[in-house]
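For concreteness, we quote verbatim a single protein encoded this way:
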Amino acid sequence: MKKITDIQGTFTLNNGVEMPYFGLGVYLSKDGQEVVNAVKWAIETGYRHIDTASIYNNEEGVGEGIRQSGVPREELFVVSKVWNSDQGYDETLKAYDASLKRLKLEYLDLYLVHWPVAGKYKDTWKALEKIYAEGRVKAIGVSNFLQHHLEDLLSVSKVVPAVNQMEFHPYLVQQELIDFCVANQIQYEAWSPMMQGKIFDMDEFKSLAEKYQKTIAQIVLRWDLQKGVVTIPKSSKKDRIIGNADIFDFELSDEDTKMLDALHQGKRFGPDPDNFDF
C-alpha cells in the first residue's frame, strides 16, 4: 500500500498515469461564481484533482476556475463523466467533445461512464476506448459499476477501466467489490464519503474525532485514503475546502480502521446501480 503523504500525493493507475488520491468534487456546486471560487480555493490550498460531470451543469465554471487559478493545466488532474442520456457510441463521442468545449480544455485526465445503463454501456465504453486510443484522454474508467457490470464489460473491452467511482462510506464498504477491483488493477474511488451528512451523528466518529483531535470529516477522509480509495469531498465553502485537506499529519491505527470497516451494513444513501431509472 502506497504511503499517504500529502495533498498532491498520487496512486498509479493501471496505465501508469498518476492520479492524485485527494481531490475536490463539485456535485451541487452552482455554475458561475460559486463553482469558480470553489475550484480556485481548492487549487490555492494545494488540490490538484477536480472532479465534475456533464450532469452537474457546471463544467464552464470549473474550466473558468482552472484558468483563474494560474496553475499550469498539466499540473492538474481533471475528470468528467458521460451522462446516461448521452450514452451509446456516437452520442458519447459527441458528449466528450461537448464537455471539452464547456471546460475549454484540450483533453481530460480521466473520463468516466457515469452509470451502467443497460444495453448501452458497452457501446459507450467502445467510444471511450476510441478517445483513449487517439490520445485525447489520459485514462478512462467507470462509475457505479458493481462486480457483474465490470465482469460484463471486461468480457468485451480492449482496455481495462482505470477507475471505478462508487458510493463508499462506513455503511457501504463493499470489500468484495474493492478486492475485485484491486485484483483487476481498477482504482477504487469514493463518492458520498460523508453519507449525506449522517456521519456527523455517529458516536464512533465523535469518539475518533476526540481521540485524534480532528474533525469527523477529516477522520472519514483519512480512512478512505488508508483504505487505498481515492476521495473527492465536495464543498463550495472555503473553510471546509481547506479543512477537508488537513488530513496528512495523522494516521488512523489499524484497530480504528478495522472498527470503521466493521460498520458496513450494505446501506446506500444514493441510487442502487442495479435499480436506477434515470
Q: What stands out?
A: The mean pLDDT is 97. The first strand starts at residue 10 and ends at 12. The domain at 10-261 is CATH 3.20.20.100 (TIM Barrel).
